[in-house]
Fold this protein.
Amino acid sequence: MNILDYIQRQANSTPDRVAIVCYHRNSERQSTLTYAEVYQRMVTGAALPIPLLGDRWDGDFVLYTTGSTGKPKAVTVTQQTVMRNSLNLINGHGYKDQLQFIIAGPMDHLGCWSKLFPTLMVGGTLHILPDGMKDMNAFFRVMSDTGKRYASFLVPANLRMLIQFASDRLQSHAGVIDFIETGAAPMSRGDMLTLCRLLPHSRLYNTYASTEAGIVATYNYNDGKCKAACCGVPFSNVDFSISDNGLIAGSSDIGFLDEDGMLHIVGRQDDIINVGGLKVAPAEIEDAAMTIAGIQDCICIPRQHPVMGQVPELLVVMRTGHSFDKRTIAKALVPLLERYKIPQFIMDVDHIERTFNGKPNRSFYSTLNSPK
């Protein structure tokens, strides 16, 4: 079966069930399509109110994305890959009949785009927010029906926004949130623990994926262990291996398997800081820094050193009401990191540059401390 076959089955069994809801920027419904209407548009090639990059769903797709480097690229996603990804998500994340999935991010990002298909395959409803998480009120207004179960994919930067500015509202919706998936960038363990506290009965997934390789592995960190940087075991239709130098096959990511066979991501090969021959993953330093009271955001970048070659530099954004003191921050990092990982330079900045999908934009900073 292909995607079209699944939609046809839903259209035959529940033709009047709502399949897609698109919203205006004021959160009012702009358009609503039933399964019968979606299937009719698919077979005739008529336009749908969401950018699916093609007029049919029974062939291959071309996904235009900036990827992790920020450079535009076009990736062909075959029907076979779409089906494999969709079945992995349905089985691995527990997609159920009539699930309400909120799409609150860019459609040219695999994290959001890949959720369109499994939601419709199981007979769920897609809620498309045109402004994504720029309007948090819209996100919460969608979850107004307490008789339904909701899910969403949100990058770590958006989850941090919810934690910082809407934790009470998020907690008040705990009873209707089935699961939230994240990916595309590292998530601090502090944010993970906070979400587990706010949503104690929701499944909280950290998923490892790439546009080219598809959806690889997932981990529900609301399991009482909350393993940082863990992406779990591979999906049923996936296998992966790690080379002798720590590279995950088919990617530029460095990782390892723990004693339970769960995949942990250390960071991208190009991001590793070489401190006198010792390898330092900037994400580890960032995760430690985010546990310090007063730090709102941060990024760790390499800085040239006349003796060591490179050393870590930490750029931090302080929360309102908290003053910057680099000695206090450095002292707080001492029990959290090995000595050579302690940043030798700590700077206060107004904001952290990020890519559209919430990743720290390391390429933006790469020229700041490059050798002159």
